[in-house]
Design goal:
By secondary structure, the protein is mainly beta. 4% of the residues lie in helices and 41% in strands.
Length: 658
Amino acid sequence: TGNMTLTGISTFNGNTTISGGKLVVNGSAANSAVTIGSGATLAGSGTVGAVTVQSGGFIAPGNSPGNINVSTLTLAGGGGYNLELANVSGTAGVDWDFITVGGGSGAATITANATNQFTIYISGNPVGWNTNTSTSWNIIDWGTVTNFDASFFSVNTTAFTGTAPVGTWAVSNTAGYLSLDYIAGDPTWNGGTGNWGDAYVSTVTGFSSSLTGGNKSVFFTGAAGGTATNNRTLADVPSVASITFNSTAGAYTLAANSGSAGYNATSALQLNGNIVNNSNATQTINLALTSNATRVYDAAAGNITISGAISGTGGLTKNGSNTLALSEVNTYTGATTINAGTLTISGAGQLGSGSYSGNIANSGTLNYASSANQTLSGIISGTGALTKDGASNLTLTGVNTYTGATTITAGTLTIGGAGQLGSGNYSGNIINSGVLAYNSSANQTLGGTISGTGDLVKNGNSTLTLSHANTYNGSTTINAGTLSVSASNALGATTDVIISEGGSMLVAALDGINDAASITMGNNGTLILNGTGEVVGAFSMSHNATAVIDMGYADSWISFWKFESALTDATRLEIWNYTVGSDHVYIREDTNGYVADSLPNVTFYSDFGTTSLGNGFFSAPELHSHIVPEPETYATAALLLIGLGIYAYRRRQVRTTT
């Protein structure tokens, strides 16, 4: 277990086995093959014969440091080389340990492998050491080598006393030498506020290694955070490979000066990799970025805000459970994928300069919170949710297939062009505190619950069908096309139904309209009853308009609370497809006489406005009265009895089924 030192010249030609302790050869035993067993060490600056370093054995050249000469060398898995580094530069065997094999032309054999490696154990604090500078040392001169593979070697720095390396260690077989290579770490910022071109001062400012040439992966680790500004020229640093905020990073803001990459869209920083935030602090990137390939923005532990424009033909993939916010006018044309968390378009930000045709695959939340209007003409798919926030108008013109909920917190969500939700049959819930405008030329069914205080607006020459009971209490306006009410309480708690010029509302379900809802009709507006009964609030019309109540092809009735005003001058109400005795228009109150005054302007037709049954006749034997054609060929008393009897029966039926 002790040490033995040989200083003379030995002619012994037998084998030497070191089973324990240390054998220091400062003389010559050139004729003796040496086997270094487990727990044993061969050291010194002399000469020996063939050397085999077995598992657990060590070769340690020199006497701090030095060069040992061997005739051949075999390195087995589990063995080690104790390498002392005294200087970064200088002479091998003087400034760092060195092994010469066969005078530099000998043969070496590697019997280690990737799972049972030979280890280089580094010690010392070399003069000139800089953790940010890549360095190489030739540590074995072996001439030729058999079975070399870099993965058969490992490096241990436990005894290294220089500044802790931030890079990586490796070995290589270079021009007949085993070279130990230190590859400086990627540029790391662990300081506070400063410029990218500042000289590195740990925890103060600057990057730990050079950014020159670009395409470097940059890291931010300092807990203090701060603003790191790119002041390098565009030619000097045109790109980065990736940007990573380590778990220890505080809140950083990345910025750029004029003339530096990232300052604006015309001098965008080329992003060749991904952006990852592993810190729970929000990271702000005030850099214009460009890429022609899809890049991942991973809000893994904290939020990321990018206030520079993203351009290029590449796509954007959002990973991580937190929020990525884009607040600039982005122009990238690739697809957008939300794998997790939230992608928010904030500030005055836009996609595609306000008209984005890329598809959006959404498994998280797409939140459009910008103050600028936006059109999305691609397909939004996936199980994720869509949120519309801010006072702007978000228009969807694609045939969208997403199944998550839709929330309108503020502003307007417009379905335009030939766009649809759920490929035309959307069962997701809609929470509306703004305006939901259906302007599409394609038909649409909404089968989920519409709730909230927001308004529903129907534009476009299509049919929008509400097939589920809803709870929203905003207004309902039909400006064009048809709104089909095909479920009880389909109009929720809405109190204002406006059927504007050219619009129509088809009531295809009993009690589809709130009993308190007032109905206002514009010129050529049409209310269609299809074998159903409705109790509603007040009725009014635009001045000088002609509106239609179509009783449909089956027994239909509608009961208004009152007329808001008399139908005078050229204001006319036409009742189409009216069947005497089976169709009824009831008025529950006429304290102001508006109904009686309106009768000359109410005309009944047995068809679509061609065959007149006469003008309105108002009868009020009790609290509930109704308008019928002026009796000319039948008995008024009989008609009233029939009408009131049917009305009373239907009211009982409505109330017993609700």
